[in-house]
Amino acid sequence: MPIRGHWPDWPERWMEFQQEMRRLFDESLGGFLDRRSTSRHFPPVNVYETEGALVVRAEVPGVPIEKLELSVTGDSLTLEGERRLELPEGASYVAQERQHGRFRRVVALPQPVDAEKVKAEYAEGILTVTMPKAKEAGPRTVRVKAE
Predict the structure, then answer these.
(1) Contact call for residues 110 and 50 (beta carbons, < 8 A)
(2) I need a surface site. Which of 37, 95, 114, 127 has the fewest CB within 10 A?
(3) 70 CB-contact burial (10 Å; exposed 0-12 / middle 13-18 / buried 19+)
(4) How many CB atoms within 10 Å of residue 43?
(5) How far apart are CA 53 and CA 47, in angstroms?
(6) pTM
């Protein structure tokens, strides 16, 4: 007798099983097969460039400003923090998609920045970090001297 006859909801359960196996496989490879995937990175960021600066915008809803730590080196920005999800007493999750806990994200910058002049703003769950480009990264005119 086929298994299908015993479990009338087998198509849904089979789909759930396949999705869970795919998720576990993807997580175990850390995005090795699909480098375009960014779903495992928290916080998600956008990086853009203006004439004089690099700007990183990170989505960090639910992270109190006092739990955010930033550090900048010549060519990378490190974001660290913690997001806690609290449930009312006696409640339990039915579904849970939001990540929580400590996080650390290193964003590689396409060129060096002036770490002394970095500015950070936080509004409505968005952290905006503006980093002026380092002087030596810009074009420079070199005079050639004749002897």
Answers:
(1) no
(2) 95
(3) middle
(4) 21
(5) 11
(6) 0.64
Q: Is residue 57 part of a domain?
A: yes
Bridge partner residues of 119 (DSSP): 130
Residue 112 sits in which domain range? 41-84+98-138
Q: Provide the token pair at 68.
A: 């955010």
**Is 32 in the same domain as 61?**
no
- CATH number of 62's domain: 2.60.40.790
| Alpha-carbon dihedral sign for residues 38, 41, 45, 47 | negative
Count Cα atoms within 13 angstroms, Cβ side, for 53.
14
Per-residue model confidence as pLDDT tens digits over 40-81? 578 899 999 999 999 999 999 988 888 899 999 878 999 999
